[in-house]
User: Fold this.
Amino acid sequence: MKGGAQMKRACTAILFAALTAGMGLIGADKPLVIRGGRVVPVSGPEIADGAVLIEGGKIVAIGKADEVSVPAGAEVFDAKGGWILPGLVECLASIGLGDRYGAGEGDEVSDPVTAGLRILDGLDPFDKRFEQAARAGTTTLMIAPGRANVIGARTVVVKPRGATAEEMVLLEPAGVKLTLGEGPKAAFGAKGRLPGTRMGSAYVVRKALLDASEYARKRKDHEVAVAAAKGKKGAVPPPAPPRSLDLEPLADLLDGKLTAFVECHRADDIRTALRLVDEFRFRAVLVGATEAYKSAGEIAKRGIPVVVGAMGIGSKRVETKDVSLANAAVLVKAGIKTAIAAEDALGLGAQEELALSAGLAVKGGLDRATALRAVTLTAAEILGVGARVGSLEPGKDADVVVLSGDPFDYRTRVVRVFIDGRAVRVPEPLRSPRP
Amino acid sequence: MIMKRIAAAGAALVLVLALTAAEDVTAVVGARVLTGTGVEIENGTVLIEGGRIKAVGKAGEVPVPAGARVVDAAGRVITPGLVDSHSHLGLGPSGGVTEDNETSNPVTPELRIVDSIHPEGEGPDEFQFRRALAEGVTTVVARPGSGNVIGGQSAVLKLRGGTVDDMVILFPADMKMALGRKGAYAAKGVMPTTKMGAAYLVRKALVEAAEYGQALERYDGEKAKNPKAAPPARDLGKEALLKVVRREIPVHIHVSSSDDIMTAVRLADEFKFLRLSLGHAVEAYKVAGELARRGVIVVVGPQMTAYDDEGRLVNLAGYLADKGVPVDIMTDADVVQQSFLRYQAAVAVKYGMDPRQALRSITLNPARTMGLEGRIGSLEPGKDADLVVFDGDPFDVATRALTVFIDGRVVFEAGKESK
Assistant:
């Protein structure tokens, strides 16, 4: 056990050295032990007086404080009775895509179908909101286009650290973003363009996916022909079919290499999403899903995960008016893998208050452990990065949040955040002496 | 005989009166009472009579009259009905076509918000009043939007009754203005395309209103001498602004940056506003000393935190309160839903605001802002019996409102709500 852990440690150290060299980070980190608090690994039972050992940016061991050895020269962080949790995972954010109040970089509104685009190419690592999210305990985020395009750019999963998009990336492409309902109607229909209706949006998706399936078939035929030619002497492999940047990601979607994150809110839009999944058999995640509780059985039957977006904090749009705090609870009860995203709103809906959004789902009937999982491990799994982040387990990235208490208690504050075992710089809040 | 009859009738009358009085008395007992003035009473009794608070105190100190309706609130928490001093409830969803901005003219003091409010709401706005009530909000200040430099006249509403007229408890409550560059007009090439343009429009309107007032006064003087004297032509806008000039109503100004905040202060100094409250005022923390010195009220929200130039988190409400600035907390409904008012305050508490101060920011302070502190905002004898029974800490996201009273009547009861 110990030997294995040491081997693992050595391997991860080497791996990390290679990684840091690639990322341009300087210097080797000392081992770090976080202890003196309640460790909540999410993937396993809580440890009342626990400790987490971190080396080379990875979690090496977790356990009771007296069972986790402190290596020589290790730094020790005392959680002082707080809660030690995995970093939170945000499933849907637009950070880095232009100023909140300025022109956004997330929606390429010249065409309803823009699968050829990559969010990676529009991402600003110096957007201060990344740092702010990190300081609030969110250590992984999926950055996705808004809801203008029916088929938008490919999404990216990042960690909120690094000076270039490449340094930030955890997974790219993470998926394709689709939007049904009011978004595309407002962006295109208002200009007299397709889609101006819900059936128009569904048609746009079907047409694009039919074109993509044709493309996928040609791609496959070519691969088969190339493989066949390889075996034969003197045989000339056929020329590759022309490459289409627009169809390639959709062909990948149909081949099961990518996930579609389908934003839909109203019950009828959710059923349209299910109809498209039934027809084209792609891997989908429903996002936003305001009225998912009205179709929980149908979603569960297909094994489709859901990212619950709106908690009803911010202004209601026509398609989010029937928002319910019970949404996540109903979905989980139906057996649906459910994550919770922060609502794009102020106050409790701010990115910084992701944990309290999950607390609202608890108010709606979700059990606390599942709610916490919905903003950590379940979210990571839905994004396809569950092997790297989302829980405190040996071998996983050392993304750790130390809170002063219960994550669903409004009085709880973030004490310290570690990403890859490194502390996030948190300036003291601005204070005024009381008069 | 006759005397006897009169005596009997009198006795019967007294009996009837006593019965009505007893029936009209409600005692909410056993709860932890947060009065909104900073006082907390364990195992307290709130006695309600005739729609008003008769007494508040410890269980033994407030006698409950025989025949009173007793509401057992043991283990519960009672607060005053929550007051939001900046809301656009009933004016349409902020994403869609709203009824709060008349963008045909940047100066519209003549507009009255009561003429735009739909008590039931429409589309996504539907049922917002009832939802807000179910979360303990009993009073809101409905304001025109910030699209215009002078937006119009605000109203204070209680969330009960079927029509706006049933709901209004104060109108005109104050004059709504907005400083800063106005995008809508800049795009049309109409003043204000600059910040100084906005300030000019306010000054011009107030100067003209003052002159209108002088003309009215002259007319009053002439009328005494000459009954046939012609009154000045009635001007609805100047008439409304005259109330500002004559210090009959306060002013509420939408601002964001510290320079616009100081422009608002400059206007208040020049025209001697009865009272100035600033809405949003995200950068108020940069000039907190100036605001505290003048007693300028800041209505914080919907944004509750900001980051300063050094990247430090600023707890907007808590910081200003610590500096001695009177602070209200708002939702700006429906930018944040009206029902989330207490969670706006919870975010301020999270980042260090004193919880009693935070509660006051959604009860007594906004009542003061509107000049209604004699009537609502705290649990004190003589005030309207607007109160909320919560099943726990009102700032906790898990906490629910169980019973809500307005004017002593139960207007919401958990489990008995109809959609």
Q: What stands out?
A: The CA atoms of residues 86 and 400 of chain A lie 5 Å apart.
